[in-house]
Amino acid sequence: MTKRSATTTGDAKKAKLDNPGFPGHFEGDGLKVAELMGQGQGLTYDDILLLPSYIDFGVEEVDLSTKLTKNITLRAPFVSSPMDTVTEDQMAIAMALNGGIGIIHNNMTPQEQAKCITIVKRWRNGFILEPKVLSPDSTVGDVMDIKDQMGFCGIPITEGGKVNGKLLGLVCNKDIDTALDFSVKLSTLMVPRSKLVIGKTSDKSPISLEEAQKSLHDSKKGYLPVVNSEDCLVMLCSRTDSTKKREFPLASLDSRQQLLVGAAIGTRPDDKERAAHLAEAGVDVIVIDSSQGNSLYQIDMIRHLKAAHPKVDIIAGNVVTKAQAKNLIDAGCDGLRVGMGAGSICITQEVMAVGRPQATAVYQTAHYATKERGIPVIADGGIKNVGHIAKAMTLGASCGMLGGLLAGTSEAPGEYFYSNGQRLKKYRGMGSIEAMQQGKESGKRYLSENQKVQVAQGVSGAVADKGSIHKFVPYLYKGLQQAIQDIGYKNFPDLLKDSYNGNVRCERRTHAAQAEGGVHGLHSYEKKLFATV
After folding, report:
1. Active-site residue 445, yes or no?
2. How far apart are CA 35 and CA 500, in angstroms?
3. pTM to 2 decimals?
């Protein structure tokens, strides 16, 4: 939607003749974004307020599609942070199903991290190319272990329990849900091969996804094992994948209809081996995780990754200045992560006296990286609510990276505990002493893993239970739609274009204005962020 700016009453009258509502701003209605952000002050999201404009469309028309990198588009601008109390496989699955993407943290072994990628990639497929299998001598307990680890229990039974072995049967949840003895062998419970609906494929006549799904629906079965001419299992098709497509229409998918997922690595030589494990597991994007990304180590890593894994996109960072961004873009990165010391659990600015207020960092960096070089930027840190995401996008960000906002959800790693009657989960910065000592990988982010004295750049704490991502992220999505509608736009490209050309207006808020804009004057209140109906 193209906006017009009017400075006189005559312009306003003319606009009303052409349009039911005046779509611009009068002189004195705030400042252009460039005017506010060009005053040489370090501003945070709370320092800024966007001015509303004319609405001539419904909120459901607002499209939140955006670029994660030059080559990857998301349906929702939400990225879960690579922190060990935020993103592992379950968070990444939930984020991708809801239109965003999860970045698996690297405070674990390369093998464990690659396994997380594999779990995400297997979660929703057109075909499950390497399904979990068991043998007839396996037990109910083995099925339950897989169900606990992977979240499903539709398991083909093959000769010798080999992935591409001769198909002998299938075990589903209904076959074992009443079993009390976990030592019972599956040979006594499985549905035998003769009673299964089977799909057949070959090099000359491969089965299509449409054919497989039609067989599932016609037979009213939950799973369709696909075999070759020798009756050996080749792959598996699941009915739930078809229903998930209807339940999660925004899902972030790759060309094979698998969920998109990212992973973090450091900048040390052994991280090249880690990246190889991740690429082999099918990772879509690698985030080079460093608190200060403008280094020789990161530039060398970008060049290596682009040469060794050309099909994997690379997000570099973190940066907060144009000069930092230039070096990493010149090295070949596909996206940038912006932020230094703005996170709720980060104390980099306090301890190191280095960083930049987040709103200013996003605007200045994006103005160069995105506007001049075509590289999307991710606003990382300082996002506390929907409004902060809207401000970040207006200032030039393509996505918001969420840490504390998602910590405490049921999909975040860790167990719930109670304190003073409140249900909590642990949340810590990757620069905290606890994180750096636990996995030994976190220290690489701060170039301090081999130091005798490790200086903390983060803290450990706890956050309140937020429920499931499958309820919380839809709230963020709907809230962001309404925020963008209030500014007067249907999509981010038009919003960003007008932000740059001066048609989006904003003002700086005083501390009194910030207090006025929040809840005030009440004896007590209950703050519910959303309700589902």
Report:
1. yes
2. 10
3. 0.77
